[in-house]
Design a protein that fits this description.
Length: 222
C-alpha cells in the first residue's frame, strides 16, 4: 500500500535517491533490492516503484542528479577562464576535468563519497546505462572538451584527443576512490599519506602532462 502523502512529496523522491545511492555504494547494484531500499528509507513498500518504476530508472536518476551538480561546477570554473584573451592550456583542461568532482566530494562529505564509489563501480563495469547517460549529457554540454584540447594541442590528431581524454577520465575515477575518508574506502584501497589537496593537485598536474605530451610510441623505435 502506498501512502498518498508520500507519492506527492519531493522530499520522498530525494530520500529514495539518497538511500539507494548509499546502499548501492556500500554493497552492489545486484545486491540491493527495491524492497530493501524502501525499508531502509522507512517508506511504504510500493513507493519506489511509484516514483521511478524500476531499478534502472532509479540508477539513471541518481547519475543524472549528480552529473548535473558536477557539470554546474565545471561550467562555473570554465566561465572564470579568460580564454578569449589567453588560449586555454592543457593544465586548465585538466582542472576542468578533475576539480569539479573534487569540489563536489568536498562539499557533500559522506554523500559525495557514496556517489564516487557508485560511479567508479559503474565505470569499471562499463555500465551501458552510465555510458549512454554520459554520452547524451556531454553532447548537450556547452563545454566541448575535445575541441578545447585540440585548441590547446593543435598537433594532436582527433583520435589521440579522444584517447587522452578517455585516459584522463579513467585516472580521475580510479584515483577518486582514494579521496574518500578511510571509513568509506573499499578494504583493498591503499591510501597514501598525502592531503586531499595535494592528491588533487598532483592528479591535475599528471593529467595535464599526459594531455600535452608530444612523444608518441613511434619515437621509441627510432
Amino acid at each position: 500500500m502506498v501512502n498518498a502523502a508520500e507519492t506527492h512529496s519531493a522530499s520522498t523522491r530525494e530520500k529514495l535517491l539518497d538511500v539507494a545511492e548509499r546502499l548501492f555504494a556500500q554493497k552492489s547494484i545486484e545486491g540491493v533490492s527495491i524492497r530493501s531500499i524502501n525499508s531502509a528509507a522507512g517508506l511504504s513498500p510500493g513507493i519506489l516503484h511509484y516514483h521511478f518504476g524500476n531499478k534502472e530508472s532509479l540508477i539513471e536518476a541518481i547519475i543524472v542528479r549528480r552529473i548535473n551538480d558536477v557539470e554546474q561546477r565545471r561550467e562555473a570554473l570554465y566561465s572564470n577562464l579568460n580564454i578569449k584573451q589567453t588560449p586555454i592550456s592543457a593544465l586548465q583542461i585538466a582542472c576542468l576535468i578533475v576539480q569539479p568532482l573534487a569540489d563536489f566530494a568536498t562539499d557533500n562529505a559522506e554523500t559525495g563519497g557514496d556517489y564516487i564509489r557508485l560511479i567508479s563501480r559503474l565505470y569499471a563495469d562499463r555500465s551501458p546505462q552510465l555510458l549512454q547517460i554520459k554520452k547524451i549529457h556531454y553532447e548537450t554540454s556547452d563545454i566541448d572538451l575535445p575541441q578545447l584540447l585540440t585548441t590547446a594541442c593543435p598537433d594532436l590528431p582527433d583520435t589521440e584527443v579522444k584517447l587522452r581524454l578517455g585516459f584522463a577520465e579513467h585516472l580521475l575515477l580510479q584515483d577518486a576512490i582514494d579521496w574518500l575518508p578511510p571509513a568509506l574506502q573499499q578494504p583493498s584501497t591503499a591510501r597514501q599519506q598525502v592531503s586531499f589537496t595535494e592528491r588533487v593537485h598532483g592528479l591535475i598536474s599528471f593529467i595535464s602532462a599526459g594531455l600535452s605530451a608530444k612523444a608518441s610510441i613511434e619515437s621509441l623505435s627510432n
